[in-house]
Each structure stands twice: as C-alpha cells, then as structure tokens.
Design a protein that fits this description.
mainly alpha
C-alpha cells in the first residue's frame, strides 16, 4: 500500500471521526439548551410576573380593554398579513423542491427544501394542536382584563367548570419561529446561511409575538413557549430525518 493511499485513508477516517464528534456536540448542546429553557420557563420565569407587567402596558384600566386590539396596522398587516407571508415561505419552499426535478441548480437542495416545508408545517401544527386543547385563556378574555374567564398558572389544574380558553401556546408567532427550519435543513452545508435563518426565525417569532401582546391576544410566556415547541418539533424531526445536500455544493 503506497504512502498516498495510506494518507488518503487516514484523512478520510479523520474526517469521519471529526464529523461524529461535531454531531455528538450538536445533540448535547441542543439537548442541554432545550431542557434548560423549559426548566427556566417552569421554575424561574413565573417569579418575575413579566406576563402581567408587559401586558399592563397596553391595557386601559378605565376603558377595561386593550386599546390597540383592533388597530388596522396590527390586526391586518402585522397579524393576518405576516401570517400569510410565512405560509408563502413554506409553499415557495415546496414549489422549489418540486421544481428541482427539472432545474439542475436546485437539484442538490431538493431534500433540504422539502425538509423546510415539512418542518414548518409540523412545527406550527404542533403549536396549533396544543393551543386548541388548552384551557388557558387569552389576556383579553380574562376577568382581570375585562373578560369573563379566570386566570390560573400554567401546568396547574383550572378552576372547576372553567371554559376552554384555547390560547396557549401562541399560534401566530409559531409561523415566525418556524423559519428556524432553514437552520436545521442547511446547518451542515451552509453554516452562515443556517445561522442567519436561526436568528431570523427567533426574531420574527418574537416580533410576531409582540404584536399579539400589544393587542392583548397573548402573554409573553405564551410566545416563548410557542418558540420552544417549534424548536423541539424541528429538533425531533431532524433526529428522524437529516436532509442531504450534494457535497459538490458545500460551502
């Protein structure tokens, strides 16, 4: 066996070992942060009363209502409008994935684009299912904000005969958080793009959540838990199916 062959085999083995180490580090890091965030939200976050402090800023105690609830910019453009933008992002990803059958330049990214579409659909659907079955009410439906439903802490049993509130976690921000699907789909092959999309997804989700907080539709905790559910869903999907991009297109 020639020295060049030995060197090549050694180099290939080194790359495999390095890839395994990076994968292990990714899962360890992701698992720790996912668990840590959940524990923070359950044990520490409630002690600050940030939900009420923030929502109170947009509530008129004299009129007993959230004054910006029906504001056209918030309601039409920043609520309904951006929601459809996120839907379009998912549908465009699907269209590009299908088009990759005929477009040579897109072919290497077909799996990743399909992954983005499925990831966005599954993660937002997970939030929607939890929200639909939730007993927690939106702020504007609570008695303390002029509504007729009681407030009770998360993960605690509701008072007897309480009507379903259907407001936890926040559904609207999940569309923005779902942009994190691009991070998982491209992280191994387009690190900078994936990192940018991770932060864009986080910021977009928080921004869409702020709109709902201002309108009285959600508490901050509803928004943060929505991001966690989206992240966890995408992480689990990534563990089951890792999208592949052809090596000749690696950065």
């Amino acid at each position: 066996m020639t020295p060049s062959i030995i060197h090549t085999k050694y180099h290939m083995q080194f790359q495999k070992n390095q890839a395994k180490a990076q994968t292990s580090a990714f899962w360890l890091r992701s698992g720790v942060w996912t668990l840590a965030f959940a524990l923070f939200m359950m044990l520490i976050y409630p002690t600050f009363d940030l939900d009420f402090h923030l929502s109170n800023l947009f509530f008129d105690a004299q009129q007993q209502r959230f004054t910006l609830r029906g504001h056209p910019i918030l309601n039409v453009w920043l609520h309904t409008g951006i929601k459809w933008v996120m839907v379009c992002v998912a549908l465009v990803s699907l269209a590009l994935a299908i088009s990759a059958h005929w477009l040579v330049k897109l072919k290497p990214y077909q799996s990743a684009l399909f992954w983005v579409f499925i990831g966005m659909v599954l993660s937002t659907s997970a939030v929607a299912i939890l929200k639909h079955d939730s007993m927690h009410a939106c702020p504007w439906d609570l008695t303390i904000y002029g509504g007729d439903l009681p407030f009770f802490d998360l993960f605690k049993n509701p008072p007897a005969s309480t009507k379903s509130g259907g407001c936890f976690p926040a559904g609207h921000p999940s569309g923005g958080f779902a942009l994190m699907a691009f991070y998982f789909a491209f992280r191994q092959y387009r690190a900078r793009f994936a990192g940018a999309m991770l932060w864009l997804g986080i910021l977009m989700g928080l921004a869409m959540g702020l709109v709902q907080i201002i309108r009285g539709a959600h508490f901050l905790s509803h928004v943060l838990w929505s991001g966690w559910v989206v992240w966890l869903t995408l992480l689990l999907l990534y563990g089951l199916w890792t999208p592949k991009i052809k090596s000749r297109h690696k950065a």
